């Protein structure tokens, strides 16, 4: 039996995808790492857990200096995950330490603690055109960072 119960196809492996979101009731900005997106929802890693049913607002920039899609979303699930080394809430490592590790082939030790994989459902689905525009923007940002 297939355990996949999704209504919408997911786009995974979104390198360089970082989000800003505001969580109700305080609507304080938070930084998150994008994991996946579909027309119906979004998955991301966050520093702290969110309860199922929590409401938040996303601004998803689709094009450089252009279109932005704002969506309200509701948390459907939240579970613990290892913190990725590029988590946007981590303090940057000193430049000398990173250079030393690269020169001598040492790997960066994994960060301590846990992150939270949060899956949300949009109140109003994105269109397939909006998804494709957003993915093109992410791809252009990834090339610019390398």
What does this 3D model show about the protein?
It is a single chain. The chain has helices spanning 95-103, 128-145, and strands at residues 11-12, 18-23, 28-37, 41-46, 55-61, 68-82, 114-122. The chain has 146 residues and is of the alpha+beta class. It has a single domain, classed as predicted glycosyltransferase like domains (Thrombin, subunit H), CATH 2.40.10.220. It has a six-stranded antiparallel β-barrel. The mean pLDDT is 78.
Q: What attributes characterize this protein structure?
A:
Thrombin, subunit H, 2 helices, 146 residues, alpha+beta
The gist of it:
The protein is of the alpha+beta class and 146 residues long. The protein has helices at residues 95-103, 128-145, and strands spanning 11-12, 18-23, 28-37, 41-46, 55-61, 68-82, 114-122.
């Amino acid at each position: 039996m297939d355990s996949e119960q999704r209504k919408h196809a997911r786009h995974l492996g979104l390198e360089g995808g970082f989000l800003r979101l505001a969580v109700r009731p305080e609507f304080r900005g938070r930084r998150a790492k994008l994991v996946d997106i579909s027309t119906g929802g979004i998955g991301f890693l966050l520093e702290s857990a969110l309860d199922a049913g929590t409401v938040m607002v996303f601004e998803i920039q689709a094009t450089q200096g252009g279109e932005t899609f704002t969506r309200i979303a509701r948390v459907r699930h939240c579970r613990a995950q290892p913190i990725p080394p590029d988590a946007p809430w981590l303090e940057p490592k000193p430049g000398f330490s990173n250079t030393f590790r690269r020169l001598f082939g040492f790997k960066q030790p994994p960060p301590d603690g846990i992150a939270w994989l949060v899956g949300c459902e949009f109140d109003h689905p994105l269109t397939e055109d909006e998804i494709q525009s957003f993915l093109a923007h992410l791809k252009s940002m990834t090339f610019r960072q390398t």
